[in-house]
Automatic annotation (TrEMBL):
This is SET domain-containing protein. Gene3D superfamilies: 1.10.220.160, 6.10.140.2220, SET domain. InterPro entries: SET_dom_sf, SET_SmydA-8. It comes from Anopheles quadriannulatus (Mosquito).
Length: 500
């Protein structure tokens, strides 16, 4: 274990948590670990039980020749050595338990909910020593889960199924099966396969780190190396300071983060971000007041979703429910845009929604931030808006969108985070294009900077982006981008040299 970088302490409020064992520099390796088990997330639609890619769960969909459960054609091709599916395959085949075809292959498939808990149980049998050392001390919130609605559902779909039809009743007690389900619910982290599909893994060292909505620990999961996880500190951390990971998405508002943490992790987060109605000055959940000019409406108690919201300037009040309803309405409108074809109309629709709510949402509101993410992906990529054809005004639009997201990330994911690197990559190209365009018009300077200074700024951005993405698995989309960034940087440096 990474004893030289962190120590494990315990307290009643947090349980076990990690602190820096010495001063750590941003980007420094904290620890590496292999998952105890890895598999499909809860409520997954039909997917390949080896590589997690979506498959047809209906009659005639691809199946494993041994056990009859979903396996894509690539993974079931002769000679391919199964790694992840092997364990449950033996159980299903030995007991003649077949997968029942489903009508809708896009909907969550209950039959697959047993897979990852079963992999945890089989991993326990295979490595009792690691279970005792690393998994036994983990929290699984048995009492709270018993009170929840899912306990009975799991009892039926997973516990009874594994102990009955799958013939595991003598090997695993009902308590142990529920414990495996609870361990995953409370502690699992989302990962992606090499092809970018979602899965979840149980990483006991990472789970020791306390949660905070502004993490100082970043991690990358390497699917091509057995889903090995590498954790680093994103910023400088002083000896004795707590190490924080995050169990939610940092780019969601407080109400949504709190409800996710309460429902699946069984706690209320009281980090400084959650307690601050302005979310550390970003106004990430703030609405604009329609009753006065320049007033900002924030929650009077961010931890209570039913608390009143109030304008700090004119005192106008509205209910938490009304705010959530408004947010929901806008969310639904944006979700519909995801169905648009990947063409000019899609980009224009996002810009229209963005303008439509300009007087309702604070400029840095999480909805605006998510629209910006969508727009950044579209500008420079879709027909009619490809990089080479963007006029300066739209190149500047893309730069502004990137910088607005970076302002939020600087607060919520400070330091060397993957999200930051991805935005930096998007930012470098329009900066180069704008510099070249000003130069082509015979202007010596743009915003007071010479062509060389502008290109050097783009080079620094690419360098920072490449250094962060270099920690990713080279086979993943982010890892491939690291390589692209390094090649672009080499070309850019050559161009800069010719300017001397």
């Amino acid at each position: 274990m990474g004893d030289s970088t962190y120590k494990v302490l315990e307290c009643p409020e947090l349980g076990r948590y990690g602190v820096a064992a010495r001063d750590l520099k941003a980007g420094e390796l904290l620890f590496e670990e292999t998952p105890f088990a890895v598999g499909p997330k809860l409520d997954s639609p039909p997917l390949c039980l080896e590589c997690c890619c979506p498959v047809d769960g209906g009659e005639g969909g691809p199946r494993c020749s041994r056990c009859g459960w979903p396996l894509c054609e690539d993974c079931s091709a002769g000679g391919a050595e199964l790694v992840y599916h092997r364990g449950e395959c033996e159980v299903f085949a030995a007991n003649g338990v077949r997968f029942r075809p489903v009508e809708d292959s896009t909907a969550g498939c209950v039959q697959l909910d047993c897979i990852t808990p079963l992999r945890v149980l089989l991993a326990k049998e295979a490595d009792e020593a690691r279970w005792k050392r690393e998994i036994e001390p983990m929290e699984y919130h048995d009492a709270e889960r018993r009170e929840g609605a899912n306990w009975k559902v799991d009892e039926n779909n997973i516990v009874a199924f594994l102990r009955g039809p799958c013939g595991l009743g003598k090997r695993f007690s009902a308590e142990l099966v529920q414990r495996a389900i609870g361990l995953l619910d409370v502690n699992a982290f989302e990962g992606r396969t090499g092809s970018g599909y979602s899965c979840r893994g149980l990483y006991p060292q990472l789970a020791i780190m306390a949660h905070n909505c502004v993490p100082n620990v970043v991690h990358s999961i390497h699917p091509s190396n057995g889903f090995r996880m590498v954790a680093r500190v994103a910023v400088d951390v002083k000896e004795g300071d707590k190490l924080y990971t995050t169990y939610t998405y940092t780019l969601t508002g407080t109400v949504a983060r709190q409800s996710i943490l309460k429902a699946s992790k069984f706690f209320t987060c009281r980090c400084t971000r959650c307690l601050d109605p302005t979310e550390l000055g970003t106004h990430f959940s703030t609405l604009l007041c329609s009753k006065c000019s320049g007033g900002l409406i924030t929650s009077t108690d961010p931890l209570d979703e039913n608390a009143e919201w109030k304008c700090g300037q004119c005192g106008f009040k509205t209910s938490g429910a009304a705010v959530q309803k408004a947010v929901m309405t806008i969310h639904n409108e944006i979700d519909e845009l995801a169905c648009f074809e990947y063409e000019a109309g899609r980009l224009e629709a996002y810009e229209t929604v963005y303008k439509k709510y300009r007087r309702v949402l604070h400029p840095l509101h999480f909805i605006n931030t998510s629209i910006r993410h969508s727009l950044i992906e579209l500008y420079g990529r879709i027909p009619g808006y490809e990089m080479a054809e963007l006029p300066d005004v739209l190149l500047e639009r893309k730069v502004e969108l990137c910088r607005s997201i970076l302002r939020v990330l600087d607060v919520f994911e400070p330091g060397k985070s993957r999200a930051r690197a991805m935005i930096l990559y998007e930012l470098h190209a329009p900066l180069i294009m704008l510099a070249q365009s000003a130069f082509a018009r015979g202007e010596d300077q743009r915003d007071g900077k010479s062509l060389k200074q502008q290109l050097n700024e783009a080079a620094q951005i690419l360098e920072e982006c490449g250094a962060i993405l270099d920690w990713e698995d080279p086979a993943t989309p982010e890892g491939i981008l690291a390589n692209v960034a390094q090649q672009s940087l080499a070309q850019l440096r050559q161009s800069i040299e010719t300017l001397d």
